[in-house]
Amino acid sequence: MHKLVFTFNLLTELPDFIGNLIELRILDLEWNNLTSIPDSIGKLNNLIDFRLFENEISFLPETFGNLTALKYLSLDISELSSFPKSFRNLKNLEWRHLNPNYSQIIRYIKTLKTVLEDMESKGLKIIYLWNDEWVDVDYIRRTVLYRENKGRF
Questions:
Q1: Beta partners for 136?
Q2: Are 105 and 128 in contact (CB under 8 A)?
Q3: C-alpha closest to that of 92 among 126, 117, 122, 128
Q4: What is the spatial distance between Cα 131 and Cα 11, in angstroms, rounded to a whole number?
Q5: Could you report the per-residue pLDDT of 129-139, keeping only the tens digit for each?
Q6: Can you say whether the dihedral through the CA atoms of 72, 50, 116, 141 is positive or negative?
Q7: All domains of the chain, ordered by start, with CATH?
Q8: pLDDT at site 123
């Protein structure tokens, strides 16, 4: 099986055996009620497209960084407290669709800065922030620098 789509299924958890689907290339779990992802997700070495938009993910396992083939990630980060350190291993990630709660976006600035510093040289060019806004990685980097320097470049 190369593609698995479970959109709009009211899933509250993902079974641990998901990690046994090692040939999976596309996993679409959008529009469910997931709050976490099992550690076994890191076994999906061939996964290139992972869609988690419109869930309530509050935690990503450290094994998330094992998804080294991942190119596309769709993720609602409103509930996410931080990215795992292993997120830096996602060297092939080209496109991220993040849905933050804009009232909480400041909370993510430092997290985004860390992720961007690690991923900028690894091919990440565009981050899609919900509300039909495409954001250039350089723009976010300049915004983070501006905030850190309290309005001075």
A1: 126
A2: no
A3: 122
A4: 25
A5: 555 444 555 65
A6: positive
A7: 3-148 (3.80.10.10)
A8: 61
How much is the pTM? 0.70
Give the tens place of pLDDT for each residue, 69-112.
999 988 876 677 777 888 888 888 876 666 555 445 555 555 55
Q: Which two tokens stand for residue 13?
A: 């958890």
**The dihedral formed by the CA atoms of 129, 132, 136 and 140, expressed in degrees to the nearest 10:** -40
Q: Which long-range contacts (CB under 8 A, 24 or more apart) does 32-37 make?
A: 32/6, 32/7, 32/8, 35/59, 35/79, 36/60, 36/61, 37/61, 37/64
Are the C-beta atoms of 43 and 64 separated by less than 8 Å?
A: no
Q: Which two tokens stand for residue 120?
A: 């900028």
In whole angstroms, how far apart are CA 91 and each of 35, 65, 87, 120? 25, 9, 9, 9
In the numeric block, which tokens belong to residue 71? 């190119």
3-class SS string, 4-56: EECCCCCCCCCCHHHHHCCCCCEEECCCCCCCECCHHHHHCCCCCEEEECCCC
Q: Report how far residue 151's alpha carbon sits from residue 90's, in angstroms, rounded to the nearest whole number.
A: 32
